[in-house]
Structures are given as C-alpha cells and as structure tokens.
Design a protein that fits this description.
heterodimer, A: 220 residues, Rossmann fold, 5 strands, 35% helix, B: alpha/beta
C-alpha cells in the first residue's frame, strides 16, 4: 500500500463517495508529484499553479495527497467530517491550506477556472489552471457555457482533466473528448491509472487553446 | 438627468480605465455602451455571451486572482437565474465583487415577468455580509458604484429607470434625515423618495432616505423615532427590510406598515409608471396607505 492510500485509510465515514475518491487518486498523485508548480510554502504566491477540484465529492484522495505533500498535518485526517475538523466531505478553501476552491455542488469549478485563467492572463501571470471534473459532472450545463468561452478566448493556461469512471447516465461513447474537440480544445484520452501517460498528457500545455485530458479509470 | 444604466456603463468603463485591478464581465446586455472600453482593455472587459451562470463564476474566478470584478446583466438573470453561482462562487468562496443588476422590479414592464426581478433584494439578502445598494438616480449610481468597487466584500447595485430628483451622498449604514416630524417615521429606500416626499406633504412625520439597503441603519431608525409608527417604502418585494425594523425596535412596542411590490404576479404590460401605481408605490398610493395606517383609532 502506498503512503497515500494508507493515509486515505485513516478517513472513514463517507463510503457513499469512496469510489469517487479512489477514481481520482492516480490523477491527483501525478498532478501533485510531477506536474503542478505548487508547495505548502507558496499557497499565497500569485505565480503558483492553481488546481481546482471541481468534483468535490469523495475528497479523501485529495486530502491524503495534500497531507502527504505537507499542506496540513496528517493528524487532521482521522477526524475528518467531524464538527471540529477542517476536512469536510466536500472541501472548503477557507478551512484547508492548499485547497483553492470550495466545491461540492457540481459544475462550478470549470466556470471559476475560466475566470481565474482570465485574471491571471490580465495580470501577466503565466501559471496554469488545472480543473478536475467527473464524467457525470459534465451533465451540468454550466460546464458547457465555460468550455465554449474558454476555447473562444484561447485560454491556453487552462487544462481540464475529466476523470471518467463511467458514472454518467445517458453517456455516449467518445462524446467527452469529441465535445471538447468540437469547441477547439486540444484533447487526448489516456489510461487514468498509468502515471507516465498521465504525466505526459497533463504536462503538455497547448498553444492558443485550452487542453483536456480524459482519464479513463473504468467503473468501480 | 442621465439614464442610470448608461451611467453605470460609463462609470464602470472609467473604473476599468483608471485602475488595472478592476475587471468588468457582462453577458451581451449593455454591450452597446461598453464596446470602446472592451476594445481598449480586452483582458479586463469580457463579454461571456448569453451565459449567465458563467458570467457570475467568471467574476468569482477573477476575484480569486485578486482582481475586483464588476459583474453586470439584467437583475433577473444575474440574481435569480444564477443565484447558486452568487452563493457559492462569491459568498462561499469568500471572495468579493460588485454585482450590478439592471431592470429591477418593472423597468421592463412591457417585457413581462421574465425580465422583472422584484425578488432580487430579498434573495440576495439571504447571503451573509452582502452589501445591497439601490441608487436613486444616475448621480447616485455613479457614487455607489465607485464606492462599492473601492471597497471590499460582495456588493449588489440595483440600477433602475425610476429616479429621484435629488442625489444624496453615499453613506452606507446611515440614513439621511430628509424631514423631521413628531409623528411616524417613513423610511424611503432607493428611487421611491420623491413619491414618499409628495405623499407625506402636510403630515407631521419624519422621512428617512438611503440608497443603502444593507447594512440597515438600526441606530438611525431608533434615533429618528417620534411616535412608534414605522412605514417602510421599498421598490421591491414588500416587507424585505421588515425584519431589520423588527430587530432595531425589538424593545419598543411599535407598528409597522411595509409597502413595496406585491408578491402576486401582475400579468400586465404597459409602462413602469403604471406598475408603480398598480403596486401602490406612486405618491397617491403611498398617501392612501399612510392615511389608513395613521388614522387615529376610533
């Protein structure tokens, strides 16, 4: 068992969302270990990369990765979801160091990230903005407003990673990648458990258009 | 006097020009007034198209990078359609911005219910710490918008066609005493002051005015109180500020008449003036309500 998974095992009580948590684990590890320019010392640095966990459900893997990277003490994990714990079943940016947005309601992270990418560009900051959404989260129409504008405004600082655990009702095979591609995004689909493939896909920053990485993790 | 919506566009454009930490996001509406500043500052003036959910969260996303966003469209779409984005994108993230809604309760009387938002203030009033403003004319719109953008936190500026003749300084949380009397206290909020002044002519009442809906000046109300009779006049849902009067006077036996827009949907078109009258918010309607409320007990 990796350090991250042993840290995850400290968190109990949200079994409804545990499948959601493990589906994101590999993507989160690759982002924090190999891709994002972030650290606990730079949580207020304007030049840091931004990671928005839009799919706030099942944040155990997220908390475990942040704790392992030193954003907050590992001792916080065991009490998660308790009245005195800063770690809720959906994360709150005002309570947890390193958490960039408070999420839980689906379909907000990508629109927020579009605004953030615009704000960074307006200030001449070259940081990346990476948003993790779920395949079923893309049911929310707000995402489609956002992905259209992001391409139109050529927000190449923006990367969406869709963790596809085939949880959407009414899914159509291949639709996710095609949907983004139609709007002009750079789009790839990779095995969401393969760290090297994920790193290669997530480290790539397209020029003149936003990027999407569809990480297929299979239904659990 | 200048139209308040043109004024908000002019003031917003000037703020973008003069301060590079200010951004302006809109959704087609008012674009005719914003082309020039958008061409000059395309990085900080963004039209998101007909995408109001995105409009609000783009504003919040800009705020997350430290910019001060002005977010503008019709109030109905800004507040009611995209309310969760206001609640979560701004309030729950705890970032600030200035939402500017045009149209109010019945500017677009001919457009019908889809373009009318008499409930905007009541809905936003559910959010902790929000500042709500109802400038009474174009001059106040300019002052209120500048003050809100220069400030911090989340603000809503309600810009409408109905206007008062005089402009008052923007003093958040402090009522202006328009007239002092020994009897009832009539609180006029936003562009209802002229009707209130006309309706109270010849009555020995105090008239208070503010363009700041929240924070509510509880101390000012207590200080002004002559007889323990309070009349609220608000050009949005009747009673929206009643809880603040109740709270301000919790230890004072008092009577309250809360005038404003009816909850019932008036399925009528016509002019804004006709709607103001239909809701009893013209001078004659307010005078009738005062007469009944202040009539000595038999």
């Amino acid at each position: 068992m990796s350090t991250t998974t042993s840290l995850m095992s400290l968190m109990t009580g949200d079994e409804k969302h545990s499948a959601a948590a493990t589906s994101t684990l590999d993507v989160l590890r690759v982002l924090y270990e190999r891709v994002l320019d972030v650290s606990p010392e730079r949580v207020a640095d304007a030049d840091r990369d931004r990671f928005y966990l839009s799919k706030g459900h099942g944040p155990m893997a997220y908390y475990a990765v942040l704790a392992e990277r030193g954003f907050f003490p590992e001792s916080w994990l065991a009490g998660w979801g308790g009245y005195d714990s800063p770690l809720g079943h959906h994360p709150d940016r005002n309570l947890v160091p390193g958490v960039e947005i408070s999420s839980g309601s689906l379909g907000h992270g990508l629109p927020l990230a579009v605004g953030t990418a615009l704000g960074l560009r307006a200030q001449g900051i070259g940081s990346r903005v990476v948003v993790l959404v779920g395949d079923a989260e893309l049911d929310e129409g707000s995402n489609h407003e956002a992905l259209e504008l992001a391409a139109a405004l050529e927000l190449d600082a923006l990367t969406v990673v869709v963790v596809d655990n085939r949880s959407a009702s009414y899914a159509v095979e291949g639709r996710i990648e095609q949907r983004f591609r139609t709007e002009g995004w750079h789009a790839v689909t990779v095995d969401g458990r393969d760290h090297d493939l994920l790193e290669k896909a997530l480290a790539h920053r397209a020029v003149g258009c936003p990027s999407v990485v569809v990480a297929e993790v299979g239904r659990r | 006097m200048r139209d308040a919506r043109r004024q908000l566009a002019a003031t917003a454009a000037d703020l973008v020009e003069s301060d590079d930490s200010v951004a302006l996001v809109y959704a087609e509406i008012s674009g005719q007034y914003l082309r020039e500043v958008e061409a000059r500052h395309p990085d900080r003036v963004v039209n998101v198209g007909i995408r109001e959910q995105l409009l609000v969260n783009v504003g919040a996303g800009l705020a997350l990078t430290g910019l001060r966003p002005i977010v503008h469209t019709f109030g109905s779409f800004l507040v009611e359609r995209a309310f969760e984005q206001v609640k979560l994108g701004f309030a729950h993230q705890d970032v600030g911005g200035v939402l500017v809604g045009a149209g109010g309760s019945f500017d677009m009387s001919g457009a019908g219910r889809t373009h009318q938002s008499p409930g905007d203030v009541a809905l936003l009033d559910t959010l902790p710490g929000i500042s709500l403003h109802a400038p009474g004319n174009a001059v106040e719109t300019d002052m209120v918008l500048r003050s809100a953008v220069a400030g911090s936190g989340l603000h809503y500026v309600r810009v409408v066609g109905q206007a008062n003749a005089c402009a008052f300084a923007v003093t958040p949380g402090t009522f202006h005493v328009v007239r002092r009397g020994a009897g009832a206290t009539v609180v006029a909020i936003g562009p209802v002051l002229d009707a209130v002044v006309a309706a109270t002519a010849g009555r020995d009442v105090t008239v208070l005015y503010t363009s700041t809906v929240r924070p509510f000046d509880a101390c000012g109300l207590r200080a002004a109180l002559g007889s323990p009779d309070v009349v609220l006049v608000e050009p949005w849902l009747a009673g929206t500020s009643a809880r603040h009067v109740a709270d301000a006077l919790r230890d004072v036996p008092h009577r309250l008449l809360a005038l404003g827009v009816d909850r019932a949907e008036h399925r009528r078109y016509g002019t804004p003036e006709q709607h103001v009258a239909a809701h009893g918010l013209d001078a004659a309607g307010i005078a009738r309500s005062l007469e009944e409320f202040l009539r000595p007990a038999a």
